[in-house]
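user: Please supply your own:

assistant:
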Amino acid sequence: MNSIQLIIDIILILWILILTVLYFKRRQLNVDIVKNKKIIRAKRYIVFYVISEYKVKGDDLERVIRNSLKDLLGSVWLNIANPKVVTYREDTQEGIISTNRVGYKAVLASLPFAKEINNNKILIVPRRTTGSLKKAKKLIGLK
């Protein structure tokens, strides 16, 4: 009884395997990660502020944001999102992160993981995401 069931299982697996191979052969699947190149080029700007007891420099902040994204989702998403601190005001500890439309959610998700700069605890709080740099600068008080 068990040997008959084993033979039936093997036949079914082979049948499904043959159908799958034929399906993929006919379809000639070309999987593209991003079909529209405009999506990659479309920028998103994340307006944020930093809560910390000490003043934080913009270069250190960008390094920590990039490391947190790499730790959370890996170097592939770091290359896709490519976050950069465009503007950072040290007096008010507000700034703007530039990324693209594909990776801005990954950057937002990684911001809570940026917890420490030079052994000083920090918290990066995103305020708003916008599509234009002009509006982002207006939100932090720059022209």
The chain has two domains: 1-31, 37-140. Residues 1 and 7 are 10 Å apart (CA to CA).
